[in-house]
Write a structure and sequence with these properties.
9 helices, 243 residues, single chain, alpha/beta
């Protein structure tokens, strides 16, 4: 994920180029404001790799991301206001454009309704939140979905993804929420992501560390290589995924 202000188009594109050179296959950019949404067409059209728009706060930014030609849109229903009220519109526009939606649930911004029902930020709460939102899309015939259920605790994260994999057949994007700084965050990420990939769970990965995005990509590559899921290339810049 980029760290440059999305409104700074040139800086964001330079960062995306650096990530692509490091081996990143997919990149996510944050869209918390109207100005960020306005920058998406230039970024999506000029980026070296597919761009996923990470939507914050307002459902209208979902439509802006789709119109901008982003490769996918990530939404967290826990932090997008009145998201459920706009699912029908989002499903219709995303379907028409052929744009997938990632329902990205994490422990840091769990839907208050789900949290109230479970009492704690458990694996079950994460899974119920994700599948509840899936059901809303499915009511409108939209199934071009990818899911993620991230927690900062590797044990909870592993349990959540295993539960989710048993309860649905959607592609899964795996990673930890707020893993922390290296080396501890690196170890946590390797434990959670590695265990899940070894189980055959996970279609894309993101290593989220409190460090530079290029370092995140390198860790992700190392995890894939250690599991034999990606061959070591002849140079230091291997291929990996970070969305």
């Amino acid at each position: 994920m980029t760290t440059s202000a999305t409104t700074d188009t040139d800086a964001t594109l330079r960062e995306i180029e650096e990530l692509a050179t490091a081996g990143c296959d997919i990149v996510r950019v944050a869209v918390p404001s109207r100005d960020d949404a306005a920058a998406l067409p230039a970024i999506a059209s000029r980026a070296a790799i597919p761009v996923v728009a990470d939507i914050h706060f307002q459902p209208r930014y979902v439509f802006a991301a789709i119109d901008a030609g982003c490769a996918a849109v990530r939404v967290n229903p826990g932090n997008v206001r009145k998201f459920d009220d706009r699912v029908a519109e989002i499903a219709a526009q995303a379907s028409a454009a052929g744009i997938p939606i990632r329902i990205g649930v994490n422990a840091g911004s769990l839907d208050p309704r789900v949290l109230a029902g479970h009492g704690q930020r458990t694996a079950e709460a994460l899974v119920d939140s994700a599948l509840g939102e899936c059901a809303l899309f499915e009511e409108h015939g939209f199934r071009d979905l990818k899911l993620s259920v991230k927690h900062h605790d590797p044990v909870v994260t592993i349990r959540a993804y295993r539960l989710l994999a048993r309860r649905c057949r959607y592609p899964l994007h795996v990673g930890l929420w707020a893993a922390g700084t290296p080396p501890y965050g690196t170890v946590k990420s390797a434990v959670a992501i590695g265990a899940l990939l070894a189980d055959g769970i996970g279609d894309t990965i993101r290593v989220g560390l409190a460090t530079s995005p290029v370092e995140e990509v390198k860790v992700g590559i190392a995890i894939l290589e250690a599991l034999g899921l990606r061959g070591r290339p002849p140079t230091q810049n291997a291929s990996g995924e970070n969305s």
